[in-house]
Every structure is written in structure tokens, then in C-alpha cells.
Design goal:
The chain has about 140 residues and is mostly helical. The protein is built from 6 helices and 4 strands. The chain folds into 2 domains: about 80 residues, Orthogonal Bundle (Arc Repressor Mutant, subunit A), CATH 1.10.10; about 50 residues.
Length: about 140
Amino acid sequence: MASRDEEILEAELKGKTLLVYLYLLRSRRNTVGVREVQRALRFSSPSVAAYHLNKLRELGLVESIRGDYRLKRLVKVGVLRRFITIRGLLLPRLLFYAVLVTSMLITYLAQYPQLTRRNVAALVLGLVPTIILWYETLKTWREKP
């Protein structure tokens, strides 16, 4: 995607429009209707949901099929860049690194449980990135839209 398109998407994909996009992204159903979006996101009327769905359609992110809408294209703009989607679940990208480093540290401790000078140094070298990765993961999780 060209950077100009990305700038337009970033400018337009926020607020209630972003909420509607995220609802479509998380939905386990293939298509969703206007009233379903209105009820799920507690919009004041179906016309508000329709407005944002049509805005997403004009941006090329969703398509309309006999009055229902479905995702046409996935985009990663703004805060969405820091997340991946697995079966409708938004997870921070750093979560996988945090789990990897933590499991490596636990494996090391299980193999070398005795506290020698070398093991303490290795423990510190493993503990510092583990703490940093979990801190950043939780910080990203709190920014979740």
C-alpha cells in the first residue's frame, strides 16, 4: 500500500469508525448487519452504524453484500500496528517475545538451579529483558482500542 493511502486510512480510521472496523475484525461471523453493529457498539441509531460502515466501504476496507457487510481488507494503521489478530482476538506483538524470553529463562533455571556466580549473571541477563518485554506488552495491551 502506498504511503499516501496509509495516511488517508490513518486519518479516517479513528473514533467510532475504528470501533466498527474492530468489531468486524473480531466478529466470528462472515458478515454483519447494520442493526447488529448498532446494538453491539450501543450506537444511538442504525443510521450511525450505517454511516461508519459506508465510510469503511468507501475506504475499501469492507464490502456490502445484500445489506450485510464483511471485511474486505486488513490494515495496520495507528495503534493496530502493534497488534496481531488471531481468530478475532487482538494480541500485542510483543506478547510472543515476552513468552519466548520467559520460557527460555524458566528452562535455564530448571536446568541450572544452583546459584553460582555465572548463573546469577545469566539470571540477571535473562531477567532484565523479560521484565522489559512484559512491561511493554502490558503497556501496549492497555492501549488496545
